[in-house]
What does this fold into?
Amino acid sequence: MERVSESKLTELEAALAKVIGGIQPIDAEAVEAAKRRLDQLTKPPGSLGRLEELAWQIAGMTGRLDPDLSRKAVVVMAGDHGVCEEGVSAFPQEVTPQMVLNFLHGGAAVNVLARHAGAEVVCVDVGVKADIAHPQLVSRKVRYGTANIAVGPAMSRAEAAQAVLVGVETVRDLGERGFRLFATGEMGIGNTTPSSALLAALTGANVEAVVGRGTGIDEARRQHKAAVVRRALEANREAVAAGAGDPLGVLAALGGLEIAGLVGVIIGAAAQHCPVVIDGFISSAAALVASRLAPEAASYMLPSHLSQEQGHRQLLEGIGMKPMLEMGMRLGEGTGAVLGLPIVEAAVKIMNEMATFESAGISKG
It folds into this structure.
């Protein structure tokens, strides 16, 4: 791997710090205005539950009661993992570039659901261990896959910062094209293993409790996978010891390039006052890192669903997020997040299209 000078590392971290420093708290006045508006609508107060909560959250994020969220993008970050050498996945690593091409040809589950939701799929190669050529691919490869976390760091600190900035810049570019609602997606065979390691390192969660079956491995291989995560935590014990005090260091030691890219998507969306709908286990691991790097970014995250993957509930609790849906899903790709997009839009429409007691001439209780 190419060595990065200290000056270049400082430049990357300074650029990231500038983005993080630009994230503002949600607009408290807009939140209160939204709550007042919701209480004037023709319904008992609070009767639409989480839909009302989403409405005032989005008002706070955007600073408007009537934000235009019609242009929606699910950003699918793709990268490979050296830890696949340890036999942690039911699928070979060659599936990562094959699935990237499937996304680009419109044939994956996330494509079907994105078409249904009226969202655009944006696929970014941030670290696939293969060369992929396609006119619609956003090619921002930092390196050809990570190293094996069971024996040492996944990547350098500079590479982690660079991958995060790829996500930030992707969202910035989409924002310039008018996109204002984002969803997170990913592709990377083996990526539940680094996600489990990140969860354990950043929250102190028990490894056995957070390592799941991923792509469908049996119990014996799940036990092996848990042992691999424990080896990874030991091999990177200095970074683990730093924990939440140095989330970028933990990400570099234990994460993945596509996870780092999603950290940037989340931070970048928050910096633009845009809601970002979080997918399942891997995306939530990125959200956990983002919340440690940029605590204000957590206010811009909307969790879509509770994955069937073991440990996802702990991940959501570690960020303080409640999922919208529980569908028994564990595919990834952004599928759960895309299902959440129409719910987000519905919340905004309720606030803006529903009659008030006064406008409808209905007596208020």
